[in-house]
Amino acid sequence: MAVDTANLAALIGSRICHDLISPVGAINNGLELLAMSGAMAGPELELISDSVLNANARIRFFRIAFGAAGDQQMGRAEIVSVLDDISKAGRLKFQWDFTEGCNRSDVRMAFLAALCLESALPYGGMITMTCTDGKWSVSGEGRKINIDAPLWAYLDGSDTSANLTPAQVQFAMLPAAATQAERQLGFDHSDEKAAVWF
Q1: pLDDT at 68
Q2: Considering the domain 5-197 in this protein, what is its CATH number?
Q3: Do residues 142 and 192 lie in contact, with contact meaning Cβ atoms separated by under 8 Å?
């Protein structure tokens, strides 16, 4: 059976994240052993440990955002754990305002939308993900929202001529995921807030 471009990209994302998570976890275990033995202590160990935790959080987040979605359910505790860990690691805070678990494809689209919003929040801020009656909204608030119009035009398909960099791939992946899930994407922004819904 042939694999379309979007699904191939998701399979590649899953493979890369799957192969990276084990060695990063092993590094973290090694650091814990060093700390317990007293062989190494101080700011150097703390810096390495923080970097490993950050890498682990990003890989877990990317595995959901860029990996193959499938139809399986994700529990709320797992989702919140990923978002809490990634919130500790950077200038953005993430909030999941949904009391239940949900379909992995919905979580994937919410995470891709969050990555789009991350590009609009150069000074950091808060990204909130909510779902009411099956309608998802992912909103970002912060100082000086920076919307790169050619990138955001990818979301509604009004203009797909901009050349994307690797850091901007979410703008192409989100519409593909929405089409696959038969969802209509929308977005809006003001000076201090931007939102994506599907």
Answers
A1: 78
A2: 3.30.565.10
A3: yes
Q: pLDDT tens digits for 75-125?
A: 999 999 999 989 987 789 999 998 888 999 999 999 999 999 999 999 999
**AA letter at 74:** M
> Residue 128: what pLDDT?
97
Task: Enumerate the domain spans of the chain.
Answer: 5-197
Q: What pLDDT score does 17 carry?
A: 62
d(CA 80, CA 39): 34
Distance separating alpha carbons of residues 153 and 163, to the nearest angstrom = 12
Q: Tell me which of 17-31, 53-67, 83-97, 138-152 is least confident.
A: 17-31
The candidate with the shortest Cα–Cα distance to 151, out of 174, 131, 130, is: 174
